[in-house]
Amino acid sequence: MNGPLMSVGTLTKKFLHAALFYEIWDAMKVTFKHMFHKPITFQYPREQRALPDTHRGALGLLRYDDGRERCVGCDLCEAACPSRCIKVLSAEDPERPLQRYATEFYIDITKCVFCGYCVEACPVNALAMTKMYEFSTHDKRTLLFDKKRLYDIGERHLDDAKKYLYAHNQEKNLEESREYRYYFPQSVVKPTQSAPKHLS
Ligand code: SF4
Ligand code: SF4
User: Fold this and answer.
1) Cβ of 124 less than 6 Å from ligand 1
2) Which of 114, 130, 136, 155 counts the highest number of beta carbons within 10 A?
3) pTM metric for this prediction
């Protein structure tokens, strides 16, 4: 007796759902609910997100405030790079005997994994990462950044590059920061075990 009655009830329900477009109203309920929420979608490229100072974007080379190139062509960034995408050629600076500078500097950005090791390895904070990330192109040969382009990036994004170095504790936000200084990240400075006797 119950069976046929339930079937009639189910059939009526189905008929009413179909006649009143129940599924559509059900879906619209979700849509209406979200109309009153603050949207979290950014309308890129018209709207852009504020990136943190630690953001690892394109690399740039930096100069001292007097315009002198910071890079001394020591090759440490090249040695630290796990992707082998840095090439530095150096020579003695004719104007400053015994001092060297990079005659050529290349970074193949197509191979870069944006790990930041090269920035950490640089003893004079000549390299920094910036918040620049819009450099997509149809010709990947243009992604072999040479010395001029790297200094251009460093100049255009100097504020962000400095913020990156401050954020990574590699350069203090002080007047003397123009001078040679290098700070390891805090986690490395803190000793995890006591030094061996012959070193203490
Ligand atoms: S960020 Fe990493 S992969 Fe890219 S150039 Fe520097 S060391 Fe190499
Ligand atoms: S960027 Fe820094 S680590 Fe690399 S060659 Fe120049 S001074 Fe040396």
Assistant:
1) no
2) 130
3) 0.72
